[in-house]
Amino acid sequence: MKRLAIIWHSMTGGSKALAEAAASGAANASGVETLLLHADDASPQTLLEADGYIFAFPENLAAISGVMKAFFDRSYYSCLGQIEGRPYALLVCAGSDGSNAVRQAERIATGWRLKRIADSLIVCTHAQTPEEILAPKTISKADLTMAGELGAAMAEGLALGVF
User: Fold this and answer.
1) pLDDT at 38
2) Cα separation, 100 vs 161, whole angstroms
3) Which of 49, 62, 106, 153 is the most interior residue, by most CB within 10 Å?
4) What does the alpha-carbon distance between residue 5 and residue 67 come to, in Å, rounded to a whole number?
């Protein structure tokens, strides 16, 4: 059985909703176990035991959120040289842009020699004031559908041995 690890962090619910949508989409693939883990609960062992990854996180201050970055920091060297070629995808919830957080995560994935299987999905909430930024996020049905389709594609690709 193949294993898909969806590792997420969210401060206001947007990235969590995207991760849950991806997990829901992946759930229909036979022969694939899907793990949905908060970044605090994931470990280097999670990465070593998985066959593919979806990372979902918010962009905070034009960067990967701190909790997700801490996960990458504590996992990077333990997994270096051991997960090359495995597929990954990114889901980013951003207030206005998201591209720098994606760029940072892609550099980490490049160091691990992971294989990107899809363009990163950046969901822009347009939150610009402190109140909007800190408010709970509602992700549109269209964006949740795209996250679900990404999860399904990743799981089916793992099941079929495409990745």
Assistant:
1) 98
2) 31
3) 153
4) 17
Tell me which residue of 16, 8, 90, 102 sits closest to 62, measured CA to CA. 102
Residue at 40: amino acid letter? D
Q: In whole angstroms, give the CA distance from residue 58 to residue 66.
A: 9
Block means of pLDDT (10 residues each) for the chain, 163 residues, are 98 98 96 98 98 98 97 98 98 96 98 98 96 96 98 98 94
Q: Which two tokens stand for residue 22?
A: 């991806």
Please determine, looking at this structure, whether the domain spanning 2-160 carries the CATH number 3.90.226.10.
no
C-alpha span between 84 and 114 (Å, rounded): 5
Query: From CA 146, how far away is CA 140, in angstroms rounded?
Result: 10
Contact (Cβ atoms closer than 8 angstroms) between residue 28 and residue 21 = no
Give the DSSP H/E element, type plus range, for residue 7: strand 2-8
Q: Where are the domains of the chain?
A: 2-160
The CA-atom distances, in angstroms, between 158 and each of 51, 52, 93 are 7, 7, 25
